[in-house]
Amino acid sequence: MRVFIELSYDGTKYHGWQRQPVSFTVQQVIEEALERLCGAKTAIVGCGRTDSEVHASYYVAHCDIPSLSESQRFDSLEQLAFKLNGMLDDDVAIRSITEVSDKAHARFDASDRSYTYLIHTIKNPFLSGRSSRVFGDLDIDAMRKSALHLIFQGDFAAFCKTGSGVKTTICDVRSLEIFEDSLNGQIRIEISADRYLRNMVRAIVGTLLEVGKGKLSESGFQDVIASCDRSRAGRSAPGCGLYLSRVEYPSNVFVSSYL
């Protein structure tokens, strides 16, 4: 039967989600644990890629496992989730496992995804590796004004990693908000879209930081978007501040109590 696995992970020690020949990834450790529990190789498909050191506070993957009547190692999906959690390190947590239709797909059926990017401007040892440190003051109002120009359906090639080889760079960015906790020197950027290009969120954040530092004007930011030229945008923000935080599906495919 096909199931959706809801999980979260700290990506600090992993080379992203997707399994690779040499590097250590989140997909690899879950597949290895599932193989031991299911008694056979079990491939899982994630809702999207995350880069090295990028985190996920909410992530969905699908896989096909033996029916409960066929399994000798677990008699319920709750027990399967419990046993998986016991086998995985503390930086990967299975939240729930749910049976879905045979054609349900964690990546292609997703209708909306949200990312959160965390920034701190005051040194904080508890945020190291989980938020991006930025030195100096940022003009948050200027960043918010520029961010409004990103809310549209159109070409985001200026924020796509060169050589990605995607068929289209058209995305529908539905919201982008910037929240500030000035007392603690913390900033949170929330972005929601139907899809993302490789390195897109980090490139957007890096370019918004150029605005916040006074190195790029609002009109200059608009020019970057219109150029569709990655070399015109800012440097990608570090992976440690990025979190996949929400994935939505049509109700007839998958309904999550965590969304």
Report on this model:
It is a single chain. By secondary structure, this protein is of the alpha+beta class. It has two domains: 107 residues, Alpha-Beta Plaits; 134 residues, Pseudouridine synthase I, catalytic domain, C-terminal subdomain (Alpha-Beta Plaits, 2-Layer Sandwich), CATH 3.30.70. Helices cover 21% and strands 27% of the residues. The chain is built from five helices and ten strands. Strands 1, 2, 3, 4, 5, 6, 7, 8, 9 and 10 form a ten-stranded mixed beta sheet that branches. It is elongated. 34% of the residues are buried. The C terminus is likely disordered.
Looking at this protein, list some descriptive labels.
Alpha-Beta Plaits; alpha+beta; ten-stranded mixed β-sheet; 259 residues; 10 strands; disordered C terminus; 5 helices
Question: What's the short version?
Answer:
The chain is of the alpha+beta class and 259 residues long. It has helices spanning 26-38, 77-87, 140-147, 200-212, 218-227, and strands at residues 2-9, 44-46, 55-64, 92-99, 112-120, 132-133, 153-155, 170-181, 186-193, 242-248.
Outline the secondary-structure elements:
Layout: E1 2-9, H1 26-38, E2 44-46, E3 55-64, H2 77-87, E4 92-99, E5 112-120, E6 132-133, H3 140-147, E7 153-155, E8 170-181, E9 186-193, H4 200-212, H5 218-227, E10 242-248
Parallel strand pairs: 3-10, 5-6
Antiparallel strand pairs: 1-3, 1-4, 2-3, 5-9, 5-10, 7-8, 8-9
Helix pairs in contact: 1-2, 3-4, 3-5
